[in-house]
Design goal:
This protein has 136 residues and is an all-alpha fold. It contains 6 helices and no strands.
């Protein structure tokens, strides 16, 4: 897998995760939580918007690789929020495991893709064809 493919895989994992979060939060019954409709609606809008931003980043993955940095922060904060909520909310173990595995998957691909595309010596011929060429 070349550097651009790794970064794009991280983007698409984030896109799928964001849209899943948006749908889950938008419908409180899916999240199995009552009484949090307004904040969940706000979070749904943020997750959906972030997913759209990752689609835009995927169109030019190397040029827009900087988007991976705040996305890494979001992934970490979602995991922290999930684990900090454990004393207050009963989360099924399968859902907790899926969330943790998804977070590790997205974080890994985004970080590796970001780091690999940052070193122009390691970008493959296929990847460098997408980079803007300097005019003499």
């Amino acid at each position: 897998m070349n550097a651009t493919s790794i970064l794009r895989t991280g983007y698409w994992a984030g896109i799928i995760g964001d849209f899943f979060i948006a749908a889950t939060i938008l419908v409180p019954e899916m999240a199995r939580v009552d009484g949090y409709v307004y904040p969940m609606g706000l979070m749904s809008a943020a997750a959906f918007s972030w997913g759209v931003m990752l689609i835009i980043a995927d169109r030019k993955p190397v040029e827009r690789r900087w988007i991976a940095v705040p996305t890494l922060l979001v992934v970490v904060l979602i995991q922290v929020a999930t684990f900090l909520s454990l004393p207050f909310v009963e989360i099924p173990s399968w859902q907790l495991a899926l969330s943790a595995a998804g977070g590790v998957f997205i974080f890994s691909f985004l970080l590796i893709g970001y780091l690999k595309t940052g070193n122009s010596d390691k970008i493959s011929e296929n990847d460098s064809a997408r980079l803007p060429q300097k005019e003499d």
